[in-house]
Every structure is written in C-alpha cells, then in structure tokens.
C-alpha cells in the first residue's frame, strides 16, 4: 500500500475522525484508482468485501474526506460526480465521446490567478482547468469504422 494512504489516514486521525475498515478501503481505492471513480464505482468495487456497506455510506465518507480537504469532487461531463484523491496541482482532460477523465500535470497557473485578482479585485481561492477532446480509444474506434 502506498505511503500516500498512510499519510492521509494520519492526517484524518489528527482531525479526530475514526478510521473504520470501510473508510480505510474507500480512501485506498480512491488513491489507487486512476479513473476518478463515481460513488457507485467505489461501492461496486468494495461491496464484495463489505456486504453491509451502502452507497449512502460511501457518499457520507466521501463528503467527510472532502471536508477534510483530502478528496475533490469533480462534477462535469456526464453529470455524475466523480471523485479524485489527488489534490496536487493538476488539471483534467475529458473525452467528449466516452466521458473518461485523465489527469494532466502542469505547473500551477499562479500568474493567471494573479492577473484575475488584479483585474477583478476578487480574492482567488482556486481554479479548475478542463481540456476537452477525444481519447485514444475513441479515436481508434472512429478510424476503424
């Protein structure tokens, strides 16, 4: 298991959150999943191990992780919320055909935030950059048709 999960769990403990086996599993799954799963995806993946777990349990835990600043909710594309445990500076490339989201690392856009603040007087608290396109798999399918 990655040290990232351990670190995250230590962080949670300091906020007074009890680490249940379910929470541990949800966080581990999220940190290892590269596909920004929905709550349903997480539920389906973990249900065999935790038969008593409901989708509501998954949602409630995700909400708690979000409040702790450890998970981000991504709402775009197909209208179902996806969750991302990677809160470092990165952006998303979204396939317009199948809705797949991939991470794309790029230096933080502090100059953009700075300019926006100067021009509008806003105090900028964050930004979300989305790039749209067609993923390799969907592109290949088009060529083959």
Characterization of the model:
The protein has 145 residues and is an alpha+beta fold. The protein has two domains: 3-84, Arc Repressor Mutant, subunit A; 90-144, 2-Layer Sandwich (Dna Ligase, domain 1). The protein contains six helices and five strands, in the order H-H-H-H-E-E-E-E-H-E-H. It has helices at 3-14, 21-32, 39-46, 55-67, 110-120, 136-144; strands spanning 72-74, 82-84, 90-95, 101-105, 130-133. A three-stranded mixed β-sheet has the order 4-3-5, with no helix packed on it. The chain has a two-stranded antiparallel ribbon with strand order 1-2. Helix 3 packs across helix 4. It is flat and about 45 Å long. The termini are far apart.
Descriptors:
145 residues; alpha+beta; Arc Repressor Mutant, subunit A; Dna Ligase, domain 1; 2 domains; 3-stranded mixed β-sheet; two-stranded antiparallel ribbon; 5 strands; 14% strand; transcription
First and last CA, distance = 42 Å
Structural class, from secondary structure content?
alpha+beta
Q: CATH superfamily of the largest domain, please?
A: Winged helix-like DNA-binding domain superfamily/Winged helix DNA-binding domain
What's the story with the biggest beta sheet?
3 strands, mixed
Q: How many extended strands? A: 5
- Specify the CATH class of the largest domain: Mainly Alpha
**How many domain modules?**
2
* CATH architecture heading of the largest domain: Orthogonal Bundle
Reading side by side through the largest sheet, how are the strands ordered?
4-3-5
Looking at the structure, the CATH topology of the largest domain is Arc Repressor Mutant, subunit A
Helix content: 40-55%
Which runs of at least 5 residues are low in confidence (pLDDT < 50)?
none
Q: Topology as H/E string?
A: HHHHEEEEHEH
Strand content: 5-15%
């Amino acid at each position: 298991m990655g040290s990232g999960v351990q670190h995250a769990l230590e962080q949670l403990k300091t906020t007074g959150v009890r680490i249940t086996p379910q929470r541990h599993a949800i966080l581990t799954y999220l940190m290892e999943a590269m596909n920004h799963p929905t709550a349903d995806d997480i539920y389906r993946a973990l249900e065999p191990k935790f038969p008593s777990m409901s989708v509501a349990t998954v949602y409630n835990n995700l909400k708690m992780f979000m409040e702790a600043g450890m998970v981000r909710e991504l709402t775009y594309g197909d209208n179902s919320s996806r969750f991302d445990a990677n809160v470092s500076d990165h952006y998303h490339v979204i396939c317009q055909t199948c809705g797949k989201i991939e991470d794309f690392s790029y230096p933080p856009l502090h100059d953009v935030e700075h300019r926006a603040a100067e021009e509008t007087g806003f105090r900028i608290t964050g930004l979300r950059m989305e790039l749209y396109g067609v993923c390799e798999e969907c592109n290949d399918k088009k060529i083959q048709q």
